[in-house]
Design brief:
2 domains; 203 residues; four-stranded parallel beta sheet; two-stranded antiparallel sheet; Helicase, Ruva Protein, domain 3; Dna Topoisomerase Vi A Subunit, Chain: A, domain 2; 6 strands; homodimer; alpha/beta
């Protein structure tokens, strides 16, 4: 016996496709939308329909933007001598939210993960090497996540850069205890990284 | 510095309006949608836009349907002598999913909650009394949730029914330990309810 109206079921099915949203949450969200004014559902539906039409992948850094070249790559005040390599486009936004980094980015589109059949050729690594071969780059910051796959991908890119004729600096983002953490609760790898990455204090 | 493209920010803002979805989840969902084929975002946007246009509130039970009268209220095989009173329309679906109940429903649209300024007049209680006054109803099952507000609302409706000329049975859904629960972990109210609601075993 199916008593959920079709129009409702369609919304539920669509929400269920989203990561982290199960059948119960999807139903709750659909019922919530029933309770809001129609302008809200109209706006939301329109925004979702427009998303893939309006967003373009930047041909330089493979981040997201509304043009062929994203806002960062087309900004002449950014320092093209430093490239920060990240896994995904949302990480660009996380770094931009801090606002300290003035260089440009390169979005790999993932990490090397043999278990999920993702090899180096599935990522934008060749494109990174190509960008660097054009010249002018002085530092590549490898900012893949400090996970097994992220570390492996960083090592792979480091090797590829060394094999190329890149003569600049290759760096890796700092690893250690996050702000607010407690030594007693940190895992061993994090603790050992925190010691390896210690810096002299200059008061 | 704002580097999130407008079309993306619009989707993020819309997701953030949904209950239980914070800024980080909203961003993650928007980036997920970037990775799916455009037909998926088209379908999803269309389904959300159609929701409030196609779904109607049933004029009899105040549940959801695609017509003036919902599928249950317009089903002649349902037993109109038993009305099950619930708080919200999604609870109708939960009960329908079990498939045992053959009566009809009445959706209150919430519970009496003085802290949130929701009084009896904000709920469909008058409409319930009116339905019963037409006659033919033999039992009203009060299936509001076993919370403080749900219990209070059930008591209020019971009083109103007794004040009316309703001569049928007024019952309350069973309360006690849920399946799979353990006595040792149950709270005191649930345990005492489980004892009050004990039934003779007929093997």
């Amino acid at each position: 016996m199916k008593k959920i109206p079709v129009a409702m079921q369609e919304v539920i099915d669509n929400f269920e496709r989203l990561p982290g949203i199960g059948p119960k949450s999807a139903q709750r969200l659909a019922f919530y939308l029933l309770s809001v004014p129609e302008t809200v559902t109209d706006d939301m539906g329109e925004a979702i329909k427009n998303l893939k039409k309006k967003i373009k992948i930047c041909r330089e850094c493979f981040g997201v933007g509304e043009d062929e070249l994203c806002e960062i790559c087309s900004d002449s005040s950014r320092d093209r001598k430093i490239i920060c390599v990240v896994e995904r486009a949302d990480e660009v936004m996380a770094i931009e939210a801090v606002g300290n980094f003035k260089g440009v980015y390169h979005v790999l589109g993932g990490v090397i993960n043999p278990l999920e059949h993702i090899g180096p050729e599935d990522l934008k690594i060749k494109e990174l090497i190509k960008r660097i071969e054009v010249g002018g780059v002085e530092e590549v910051i490898l900012a893949t996540n400090p996970t097994i796959e992220g570390e492996g991908t960083a090592l792979y890119i480091k090797k590829k850069l060394e094999e190329s004729d890149f003569k600049g600096k290759i760096s890796r983002i700092g690893s250690g205890l996050p702000m607010g953490a407690e030594l007693g609760f940190a895992d061993q790898v994090t603790l050992s990284r925190a010691f390896e990455g210690r810096r002299e204090m200059n008061v």
